[in-house]
Structures are given as structure tokens and as C-alpha cells.
Write a structure and sequence with these properties.
Among the domains are: 156 residues, Ribonuclease Inhibitor (Leucine-rich repeat, LRR (right-handed beta-alpha superhelix)); 237 residues, Leucine-rich repeat, LRR (right-handed beta-alpha superhelix). It is built from nine helices and 58 strands. The structure holds 2-acetamido-2-deoxy-beta-D-glucopyranose (5 copies).
Amino acid sequence: MANPCLFCLWLMLSFVVLQVQGDGSVGCEVEERRALLRLRDVFKYLNGTTPLPSWDEEKETDCCMWERVKCDQSNHHVTQLYLRGIRLWSSSDDFFLNASLFLPFRELQNLSLDSNKIRGFHEVLNLSKLQVLDLSFNWFDEIPSLGLLRSLRILNMGDNSINTWSHFEELTTLKHLELLNFAFNYLSGKVPNALGSFTALKFLSFEYNNLNGSLIDGGFCKLRNLQELGLGFNTFEGRIPSCIGNLTSLRTLDLQSNYFTGTLPSAIFSTLNLLEYLSLSFNYFEGSFSFNSFGNNSKLEGFELENFNNTMMVNTENPPWMPQSQIKIFRLLNCKLNEPSENLPSFLLKQRELLVLDLSHTGVREILPSWLLINNSNMKVLNLAGNLLTGSFTYNNHQTKNEYLRMLDVSMNQIQGVLPHSIGVSCPSLTVLNMSMNTIQGGIPPSMGELTDLISLDLSNNNFSGELPHEFVKGCISLQILKLENNNLQGRVLPANSNMSSLEYLGLTNNRFTGELSRGLLNSKSLLVLDLSNNSITGKIPNWIGYLSNLKAIVLSHNFLQGPIPMSFCKVKELGFLDLSKNKFTKTIPACLNVLSLRYLHLHGNEFTGFVPKLLSEASALVTLDMRNNNLFGSIPNWISSLSNLRFLLLGGNQLEGSIPSQLCDLKNVSMLDLSSNNLSSFLPSCLHKVLFGSKPTFDVMVGLNIYEWFPGYPLISTYSYESQLQIGQSLEYDYDVPVEEEEVEFVTKSRSELYKGNVLKYMSGLDLSFNNFTGPIPHEIGYLSDIHTLNLSHNHFIGSIPTTFSNLKQIECLDLSHNRLNGQIPQDLIELHFLSIFSVAFNNLSGRIPDKNQFLTFDNNSYEGNPLLCRQLLGESCNSSSSIEPSSSSEPIIEENDPFKDTFVWSFIASYIVAFIASVIIFLCCTDYSERLLMSVRAKFVVFIF
Ligand SMILES: *[C@@H]1O[C@H](CO)[C@@H](O)[C@H](O)[C@H]1NC(C)=O
Ligand SMILES: *[C@@H]1O[C@H](CO)[C@@H](O)[C@H](O)[C@H]1NC(C)=O
Ligand SMILES: *[C@@H]1O[C@H](CO)[C@@H](O)[C@H](O)[C@H]1NC(C)=O
Ligand SMILES: *[C@@H]1O[C@H](CO)[C@@H](O)[C@H](O)[C@H]1NC(C)=O
Ligand SMILES: *[C@@H]1O[C@H](CO)[C@@H](O)[C@H](O)[C@H]1NC(C)=O
């Protein structure tokens, strides 16, 4: 107020006006005032104070002046009551409201009780003038009896817990009802036919329920005045009936996330010429669809079709479609776009107002269309991932600025060249940037440091080189996910001045980072996953690592780290995945380590000594224990049986001695057991067959999910807004979700590299006892391991004959019994082992005839050498003298570097490692606050209906 006296004058004047109203006794009716005071007391907080302090009987003020009350100008009856969110939805006390409290308000037109945690009305609400009733965000579990509200135009029952259709038919007597909102409830089954009698309806939402049946059942086609129809996030099924084409007033149609099938007949859309927003996403449509159907539509702004069924063909060119309106949102994920030319839709050239463009996984084969960003300076989301884009960024930063761009994803293409050097300046609002899986080179531009909102950056699987720029590590303070795997980056991991305090995932595997672990990591105390494997990091693990106490996965394998594991590791509370393999670590793991959550422990290829750490007997969640190639001694502990979840027990390449304890047979879930190259001796326990070796996988590994899957989406702003009563399609939040890609794992078996699809891995199983001093006969029970893939008993002192039960090893691919003292014949039934592709019995004392059928025809003499009495019956020859197999010149057992059996184990292991790693990450992220956050992000999608 410039002049205080003017203000005083105004105040006085208003006071006079009030007085006149009050004195003229034209204020609200006595009865209404009394009713309001009763209501006020009902809404009192538990501590006795009122949330409606202005509703005060002591003061003579007109109740029309009370907060949240509005009266009719002429007759001063209360006509509107906004009691929204008084007893907060989140508060613990919920209550019932006796509807008769509202009866004195006969002129009431508008009643809003949303967000109150009210459980229900006890009486029938009977307000003859009521036009608007908002009961959303309460706790109703059924539809209140409202059939007497003959004047009602708007009924909002969204966000309750309604789960029955009772009283729904009663509502159909409300002939004036124009807006009906049941979004976010628990309604299930089919929509009652009665729906068809709401003929005045213009706006209808059943989004987020569990409705099923087809659209015909629901009688939706009868609602000829509908302008907005929201049926998304239900379980509706069947085809889209062609009668939908009769709803010619429709402006918004949201059918996403249902089970609709069939083709999308263009006839439907060719009559809906007022459509502004159409979402067909997350259904199971098939066949082809031509955008030409929208030829006469002059309003379309938003179109979404992310199909689950990636066979759907979508065509914008033949005949060509040129929208008469400017498109703002266009998403076509997972369809086949414009086959066979695979061109970008040509209408895009004419768009200037695009906010969201998602053409990911549509098979587009083009040069990277940087012009999209230049033409559409308001773009918020651009996703072109998983196509066949080539060329490089020709984005000229001085030309334009994309101030609003939040997400840019061009991953999984064939983009080359370097990143635009001023990307951080021209796209300052980026929160998600994904350029992984291309062949981009050069350094990370220092201007990236300007991206203070950046949450997720994925540049993995490219040819990036150079060091992480200081500006970048200092500036990106919001970064939570940093994925730079598989590049040629160098220098220190995170320099001391780094400021990535929100970082949760740091993936730098397979680069050329050097130096000691840098204190810069300490500035990222929220780290959950630290993966620095396959670099050239030196020195010891510093004591301060314990300050990163939230870590759930630590992967430092394949570096030059040394020394003992520091005690401070024990401060890490919920370590689930620890991989220190292929370094030069010494001593043993600290006895104070928190192993309760530990699921994956990889320590192989170090210089750890001592016994198998006793501490691990408490690690009951352990799935993988890999301590191969260390200097462990002592025996295999009896407590091993307490690791009942163990799948991979790998202790090969140590100096373990003694016999295999029978407790090991209790590890029923083990599918890979490697005890090779130790000094184990004595007889094999006959119970080994109790270990299932993969026959019944109890542990379902979810393989092949991109880690992004489990970092829930980052809400990326509301991208699209137009006038919508129900806010359907508004406040769209874009989750950053990469479609599920099956991880392919290089897996070597049968001495050759094969590409196994991830989910096959859980069935790979093997037992390797080679290079020990086991004696006695091979227990015939081993032949019961009918699901085992690899069995290696070579280089021991086994005696006796090959058990005939071996013919039961139906899945076996590699069987090595060489370098033992076996005698007798090779059981002829082994020809039944159809998958057998590596077989050796060399250097034993076997005799008799070599099986000569099936697989056995493919094994050469190396499989049999060193068995002077073994003979091979070649074409026509008799099996006696000449064809016996001579020992080859070098009869010394040579442990070759690339012994195929070793390879099998190594590769099996790597494969399992990858599976395990992925699984572990999934498990962490599912079990912890991530799932909560996921829920939150879902919750955040709830659209509150506000008048
Ligand atoms: C009474 O409870 C309400 C709601 O919990 C709170 O906002 C208010 O401050 C409390 N008043 C007093 C005096 O404690
Ligand atoms: C609601 O209020 C009316 C009038 O005061 C009363 O007759 C009725 O019993 C009340 N209903 C319940 C369930 O308390
Ligand atoms: C409604 O749609 C159906 C099916 O497309 C059609 O047969 C019928 O004539 C339409 N009704 C009107 C009044 O247009
Ligand atoms: C557009 O309208 C014209 C004239 O009514 C009609 O001939 C044409 O078939 C319509 N186009 C589409 C795609 O429905
Ligand atoms: C968009 O960019 C392309 C390529 O530079 C250009 O041909 C086209 O005219 C632009 N469109 C608009 C609407 O500016």
C-alpha cells in the first residue's frame, strides 16, 4: 500500500458494507448458521481446536462471510460449501459424517468434502438444489445413496476405496449428471448396463479401477454427448467397437493400459474429428493403422500408442498424413513405423510445438534428426532409442536453446561423432540423458557441469575417452545414476572436488581409470552401487570406504588393488553384493563384516589365505560363494550346510584338504560346485546326488532386465495441458523406462562360444572335482544327477569302473574322467547321452570296445589315449590289435591354459556372475526404498480433481 490512509479508508468502507449486511438481517439464515456450527464441531481436531476458526457464534458476523462458505448473492442462502481437506486425508482419525447435518442447506448447489478421510454417510443426502458434489479423496468403500439429488450435475467420487456397484443404478435417476468421476477406486467386474442411461454425461472417468468386459458391455456407445472418456488402467478387453465412432463429441479418449486387442479400424477415428487427445498405449493391438484416419481432424494434439505387441504396423506416409493442428505429444513406442521405407513421419517437419516425441523402438532408419530440437524449442521429452539412427549431432548450439528439454534418449542407435560441446548450456533442464550403446567418441563436454538438474546420465557402451571434466563432477549435483561403462575413460575415478552428493549408482566398469580410490567418492554418501571393475585402480582399499555405509553392491574386480580388506568395511550395513575378484588382496575378510544381507560374494583370483571364513556360516542368504584361486587351506567346513540358499559354490584352486563332508550334500540348491585343483582326498560321499545341480531351480533369476528398469521413473514434469474437466491425459508424467531387453551372455560350453539367452543360464549346472586326490570308486549315485550339464572328475585316483548309471546323465554335455585309474569297459549305454559333446577317458586303464554310435563317432583319439587296452572298431576292422590307441608322445598331464573344461567353468561362472549381478541389483532395488519410491511415483500420478 503506497498510501496508508487510502488503505484505512478502504478498510473502513468494507467494514461499513459488512455492518449494513449484518444489520439489515439479510445475513445467512439462523437455521443454516446453526447447522454450520454443528458441522464445525464435527470437524474439530482431536485436541479440541477447530480448523474453522472464523466460524464463530460469538461474533455477529454473517455466516456467508465465514471461510469456505459461499452464499447466493440475492437470497443469502448458503449455496456452496468447500470443506476440502479439513480432516486431512493422511491423518489417522477417520470418521463418519451424518448426512442429515447438511439438510438445513436447502439451497446448496456445491458441496466439496474431498480429502477428509470420511468413511461414509449415515443418512441419505437429500439436497434438492445440489449441483456439484465432490466426495473424492475420502475413504468411502461404497457409492453413497445419492439418488435424491435430482439437480446434481457433477459428482466426483474419485480416489476412494469404492469396491462395489451398489447404489450405482440409483445414480441413473440423476438425469442432469454431466460429470461422473470414479477414477482411482477398486471397482471390478463389468460396468453395469445402467451406465447407458446417463445420457447427459459429458465427462466420465473410470481410470485406475479393475474393470473388465468389453466396451460394448458397458454401454459406453450410448453416451452420445461424451466429450471426455477415461478408461485407462483397467482390464477391459476385446476390440474397440466401431460404435465408438458415434461419440462424435469426444475430445479426450484414454484407453491405455488395458487388454484391448484386434486391429484399430480407421473408420472409428475418421468420425471423431474433435479428438484432441487419444491414448491407446499399453494394449495388445495388432494389424496396421494409418494416420490418414485423422485426415479430417483439426484438433489432434496428443496421440499415444505404445504397444505391447511389437508387430503392429503404423503408417503416416501412405497416404501421407498432415495434421491440421500442431501436434504436442506423439508417442509410438514399440510399433513398426512406415515399413518398408522406415522413414520418420514427414509431418514432423512441419511441427513447431512438440513437447513430447517418443518414437523409440519403431525401427526408424534415418540420420539423427537434430532438427527436431531446433524446430521445437519447447520440447520436453525426446526419445528415439532403439532405432537405426546414424550420423552425428549436428546440433548447433547457437542456433537455439532447448530450455525445457528434460529427457533426451537416443540410446541403442548407431550414432557417431562427438557430443555437442555446449550441450549443457543449450539444454540446461535435462534430468535424464541416455546416449548409451552408440559409437560416440571424444570427451565428456565440460559444459555438462551446467546440468544441475540431471538425475540420470547414461553414456555407457560408446567410445568416450579422456578424463571426467572437473566442471562435470562438480556441477552435476543432482546426479543419482551415472553409467559410463564400456568406454575408454581415464584419470581418477571421482576427483576430490567432485560434488555428486546424490549419487546412488556409479558404474564405471571397463574403462581405463587409474590411481588409488579417490576421496572424491566420499562426497557421494548415498552410493548404493559402486562398480569400478575392469579398470587399473591401484593401492589399497582406504579406510574411509566405511563412510559409504549405504552401499549395497561393491564391485572392484579386475583392478590392481592390494593389501587386506579394511575393518571399516564392517560399517557397511547391508552389503548384498561384493566382488573383489582378480586383484591382489591378502589375508581374509574381516570377521566383523555384516554378512546377513550378503547374497553374492566373489573373491576369486586374489591372495586370500586361511580357512574358509567361519563368518560366512551366518551368511544364510548367500547365493554365490566364489573363492576360487586363492590360498585357502584347511578342510571344507561342516557348517557349509547352513548356506541353504547357495547356488554357486566355487572353491577350486586352493589348498583345501581332507574329504568332502557329507554336510555338503545338504546344499540342495547348488547348481555349480567347483572344488577342483585342491588337495582333497579320500572317497567321494555317496550322497552327492542329493545336490540338485539345477534340476529344480528354486531361485528364479530375473535375467536380462536393464538396470534402469529398477530405477523407477523420474517424474518428468507435466508435459501436456489443455482444457480437461477430468484432467485425463494431463499431468502426464514420463517414467524413464527402457523396454525389457534380454541380456545376452557370452557363454562358453562345448569348447565353443555360444550365445545363450539369459534365462537359459539358470539351468546350467556342473560339478568339477578335477585335480585332487580323490580315491575309491566313483559312487554310482552320481549317475542320478540327471540334470547336470558338466561333470569333471579328471586328474584324481579313482578306481573301479565307470558306473553304468552314467547313462542317466541325459543333459550332460561335458564328461571328463581322464587321468584316473579306472578300469573295465566304457558302458555301451553312454551312446544314449545325446547332448554329450566333450568326452574324455584318457589315461586310465580302460579296456574293451569304444562305443561307436551317435556322439561317440565324433570324439577323436585324444578322448581315449593312454588306455592301451581300449580299442576302436573302425570300418570293417575287428577290435583286437592294430586299432588300439597309442598313448601320444606327451603323456604327462599338462594343465593347459585353455583346457576346455576349465573354460567351461570360467565361462559358466562369468555368465552366472552376470545373472547374479543383475539379479542382486534387482533384489536390492526391489526390496528397499526404491519400491517405496516406485509406489510414490505411482501415487504422484494420482490426479486430484479440483473445481
Ligand atoms: C491440534 O491438532 C491440529 C491437527 O493435528 C494441529 O494443526 C493444531 O496445531 C493442534 N493445536 C494445538 C493447540 O495443539
Ligand atoms: C443422523 O442424524 C439424524 C438426525 O439428527 C438422526 O436421527 C440419525 O439417527 C443419525 N444417524 C446416525 C447413524 O447416527
Ligand atoms: C452407431 O454406430 C453403429 C456402428 O458403427 C452404426 O451402425 C450406427 O448407425 C451408428 N448410429 C448412429 C446414430 O450414427
Ligand atoms: C474427410 O471428409 C471428406 C468430406 O466429408 C470425406 O470425403 C473424406 O473421406 C474424409 N476423410 C476421412 C479420412 O475420413
Ligand atoms: C524443421 O527443420 C527442417 C530441417 O532443418 C526444415 O526443413 C523445416 O522447414 C523445419 N520446420 C519448421 C516448421 O521449422
